[in-house]
Amino acid sequence: MKLVTEYLIIIEKEASEAFYALCDNVGEFTKLLQTDLDIQVEGLFINYKRATKFAYEVKTNKIEGKNQRFFHLKVTLDGEENNIEDYTSLLRSIRGIVHRAGGQPETLWDDVSLYYSYKAYPLIHKLENLMRKLITYFMLTNVGKEWVAETSPTVVREAIDKSKRKQYLDVLHQIDFSHLGDFLFKAYQTRDVSKLYETLDNARKLEDLNLDDLKIFVAKSNWERYFSKVVACSDEYLNKRWKQLYDLRCMVAHNALVGKSDFDQIVQLVGEVEEHLQTAIDNLDKVHVPKEDREQVAENVASNLSASYGDFLQLWKSFEIALMSVVSDWGLSDGLQQKHRSPAQLLQLLSTKEIIDNHLLQDGFELVQFRNRLVHDASSSFSEQETRNYIMRLEEFLRALKRSWKDEVVVALRALGGEASLSEIYDFIENNSIRNLPETWKATVRYTLQLNSSDTETFKRGGEDLFRHLGKGRWGLKEMT
After folding, report:
1. What pTM was estimated for this model as a whole?
2. Measured by CB atoms within 10 angstroms of the end CB, which terminus of the chain is less buried, N or C?
3. Where are the alpha helices (DSSP H) in 206-259?
4. Cβ neighbours of residue 49 closer than 8 Å, sequence gap 6 or more
């Protein structure tokens, strides 16, 4: 094997006048190196520790117009692999000698780094693909077609016919090494944290709280949820090593100087991580994702595909919570079954009750469709700009959704001095609302007033006590009357 290392050594008169004056030719530079008793130069060769001989070349000249001299040093190993230790030790000694004398060695070429990079890359590449194998296997066997399904069975068949399934299998190869770890090691929540706050608020004494009920709100990684029972290793252990490997991988990928210590660390880390990933793959038949968690797992995986995907899906959680809140405010919730309704079903319910108009309904359906493709159709790819546009649309939808009919009536009554007749309220909303008013919107206004007034029987359905019934066809805002 042949390895070449080249240094350009700069000597500045101002920085080291003695070095500059005394080391002014190749012979003097060679004498400087031989101040280390392990180094002996014999013509075109340099001996190290009287055991190993390497080719040695050195040239020198002044830098025109400056009080600087340079030496161009080239040391070549042309021998066996077991000579690398002595070779790297010699190079380290040369750099030390030059530094101590006041010179500045710059590396022009380093085959040692290249050698260790070549040895390290297959190890990292194998581990990276082992991680991809585990994630793909995990998703296919536990989330299955729900991760790759498109909007209809016909579309799925067409996608397979067009070989888009290959794109699905390749999708993880587009993910950065560091983000691959997030699929398994990044903690996330599956429960609405607002419910935790509600539970704590309702508790009057410690005995009112159940520890198991509180623990379900703790953020956990997919590794902790599904693999910790079959692999004797924590996600913290693996995540720490995965991040260390990422830093070393960047050194290899970006042609940084990779030495033996770096290579040895890569070997150690790959061995430690590979063992546990393989154990996880071998035990995947024992891993089970409950049906109610599969949607959340799919979302978690999709959110790691890109930063914009993650931003959209994080905002989507607010969207789902807002939908449930509106449904609850209007007394349309049906208890335990409500949480199993999809966003599309909730939108349709709100449209049927004319709480949202057709324009908002259609916009909501398009957002649902985009979200489902993002989460379940791994063969689809969305640009950063396209995803950001949907984020803006989702934000606009949330603003419109949060501007409920209750808000419309409150705004109208405040503008009308705190109390008004129904006809005055109708006129104000008709002239000032940003909504496309449905045909039965006036009935919705009356229902909103009744639902949110303790003066009526309708209030018992769970409204907020905002309005006062002042007489037939006349209403007031409690805060102003």
Report:
1. 0.56
2. N
3. 211-215, 222, 235-253
4. 38, 86
